Amino acid sequence: MRPAKICFYVIPLIFLQSLLLADSKIHEIPHSEVGFPLPYYSPVSGTFAEIRNHNLHLGSDFKSYGLNGHNILATFDGYVEEISYSKTGYGLSLNLYNPKYKIKSKYAHLHSFGGTLHELELLRRALLLMGDPNGFQLKLPPGMFMTKKGNAIGKTGETGSGPPHLHLEFRSEKGNINPLYFSELHQKDVTPPTILSLFLEGDELEKPLLLTAKEIGKGKFELYTESGEPFSKVQLTGKLRIRLSGYDKIRSRNKNNVYGMDLFVNGKMIFSRNFDFLPFEDKSQKHQFYDINRSSLSPPVYFYHMYDKPKLFKEEGFSVDLNQFPKKETVKIQASLRDATGNQSSVYFDILNEEPKKDPNAKQVAKKTGNKIKSNDGVIGIDLTKAEISGEGSLLVTELSEKEIPFSIPKGLPLKGKIYHVETKRLSWKGEALGEMNLGYTPSVKDSLYFFDSSIGRFQSVQPKRKPSGFSFKLTKVGYLMVLADETPPTVFPMTSIARFIELPEVRNHCMEEKYYVLSDVGSGFRTNVELLLDGQSYPYEYDPDRSAVKVLIPKSLQKERPYLLLEVKASDFAGNSSEPFLDLISTNGWKEDLQASCPVIE
Predict the structure, then answer these.
(1) Contact between residue 583 and residue 598 where contact means Cβ atoms under 8 Å apart
(2) Are 185 and 60 in contact (CB under 8 A)?
(3) Contact present, 582 and 570 (Cβ < 8 Å)
(4) How many other CB atoms are there within 10 angstroms of residue 321's CB atom?
């Protein structure tokens, strides 16, 4: 454990920034020379170092309210160093470089370039026309496209991945800087982070404790056990690991990553971490900061290690070693989360340094042979041989009845058999655990294996495959396994917030009308191929995974012959259920005003 260097609520922000600059990771560009990237004060919808599929999020996402075509502004004086385009990832992006302070900002998911750099937009069009239309990456001569802080240099879009938003990164020579480090990009919120739960595991604990946090005042939270009893004291000894779950809403409704965290023992800070800077080599090291078997990207749930975890995954750290304290002494614990403005939230509890009492009624949870674990009845088998394991504990598999589970099974999905709780004790794994559920019979097409992710409170996929006697599956998280019968068809409905996805006039497609139809299913999952008819004829569409919707492009020139169009969408799921056709009567009134001479004529 390292001593704390920084404490937001003790050290004012301006002095804090000076301390951070002293380690030379963040170049000394004056905060007054770094400006906001948009012409309006947009809330952050995604923050620095959040979990992503493969790497940590290296910047901040700013809301564009679903609209493409807002100006993006230069965050500082400099020149465009590089431009690139791809159909995935960053999409259309540019890098702005300041040679004086050797810092660059990257803008991603753009619709186009332009503004004060009109020639740069012409270059983009030429590259797509004359080169590979699927993408390009071009280094530009230093100083060719110069700009000043606050100048418009492009338009927001949704190229690459995700719905419309602006992704902004800051990079020094050694790594990525959190955009919220700079004072002009602060969200200036007054709401402290939300603490969801505290996960406590120890050498002498038979089973880890997952304690729920409830807010009792601004920045103050109380802990409760799974049975709903207040938790303020526990009897333990040995080494402990504390993980704190929470998020920060800032000014948006999104559940964002926090800026920092602290752990205090008897009033003394023993651990502190800031998400202000991330070395390039750490961008894929999610396990250093998060419990990867409990944390989630969608929906965002972050279980933060309140201790330093080594880069080598197999090694394990710890929060507190109670062996360093006298026996029968009471040790006071405070765990806190912070935002970029300095707001702090905390939970408190005491530990009596004694051997914990054994539970004589504890269930036998699993049978273990090496890295292979079986449930007590032999139905569930999980193999961790091909996964990378950290810690010297074990995987716990407990058989439960429906009455014992802490969640509700959706209507229309009747339970078939037992429920199995998969938990860990002083162990985590990276990669896929391989599992088998041996039912002793062949499951029907409506029967499927379901997994309830206990950390996010939702059903998630475990890639189940049917076998003659049950299912095989892949597991990366802890939670509950069960077989449910899918008797509920999927649903189709129009995107009610379609107005949020209208492009601004400068970048609007005047030739085509865009329609989105969202697919949803509470059971085995919807198929992305649908039956789609326009005026009774089969019509092409595209599935949009970011919106879980089918996208339909309709030529506006059809308004010449048809005042109304009837569109039908019918979806199906993997259990063989089909939805009722969704009917949309589309009026073409008003399309004529958008048509231009360059639009193709379709009658």
Answers:
(1) no
(2) yes
(3) yes
(4) 13
Long-range contacts of 112-116 (CB under 8 A, 24+ apart): 112/154, 112/155, 112/157, 112/507, 113/83, 113/153, 113/154, 113/155, 114/152, 114/153, 114/154, 114/155, 115/71, 115/72, 115/151, 115/152, 115/153, 115/154, 115/155, 116/147, 116/151, 116/152, 116/153
Residue type, 358: K
Rounded Cα distance, 566 and 534, in Å: 6
Q: How far apart are CA 345 and CA 349, in angstroms?
A: 14
Query: What are the φ/ψ torsions at residue 335 (nearest 5 degrees)?
Result: -115, 130
What phi and psi values does residue 282 have, to the nearest 5 degrees? -100, 0
pLDDT at 363: 62
Are 487 and 411 in contact by the 8 Å Cβ rule? The answer is no
The single-letter code of the amino acid at 15 is F
Quote the CA–CA distance of 4 and 272 in Å, as a whole number. Answer: 5
Rg (CA), the chain: 27
- β-strand 388-390 against 542-544: which pairing, if any? unpaired
Distance, CA of 158 to CA of 267 (rounded, Å)? 47
Dist. CA 185–CA 178, nearest whole Å: 10
Beta strands in 99-191 (DSSP E): 103-113, 135-139, 146-147, 152-156, 165-171, 175-177
**Which H helix or E strand runs over 71?**
strand 71-73
SS3 15: helix
| Virtual torsion, Cα 125, 127, 128, 129, nearest 10 deg | 80
Question: How high is the pLDDT of residue 27?
Answer: 64
State the pTM of this model: 0.86
Average pLDDT for 217-239? 94
Identify which of 169, 407, 410, 197 has the alpha carbon closest to the alpha carbon of residue 301.
197
Is residue 82 predicted with pLDDT exceeding 60? yes
- What's the N-to-C CA distance of the chain in angstroms? 72
Q: Is 234 helix (H, G, I), strand (E, B) or coil?
A: strand
pLDDT at 12 over 90: no
Burial of 103 (0-12, 13-18, 19+ CB in 10 A): buried
Tens digits of residue pLDDT in 144-177: 999 999 999 999 999 998 788 999 999 999 999 9
CB 539 within 8 A of CB 517: no
Q: What is the mean pLDDT of residues 76-97?
A: 96
**Which pLDDT band, with edges at 50, 70 and 90, does 362 fall under?**
low
> DSSP states of 531-565 as a string?
EEEETTEE---EEETTTTEEEEEEEGGGGGT-SEE
pLDDT digits 0-9 by tens, 557-580: 888 888 999 999 999 999 999 999
The residue behind tokens 């431009």 is 83
- Whether the per-residue pLDDT at 23 is higher than 80: the answer is no
Q: Which two tokens stand for residue 469?
A: 């006697």
Beta bridge partner(s), residue 137 = 84
Give one DSSP letter per residue of 25-61, joined into a string: SS----GGG---SSSS-PPEEE-TT-B-SSSB--SEE
CA distance 582 to 570: 6
Judge if the upstream peptide bond of residue 563 is cis by omega within 30 degrees of 0. no
* Other Cβ atoms within 10 Å of 280 Cβ, number: 13
Nearest to 595 by CA among 508, 535, 515: 508
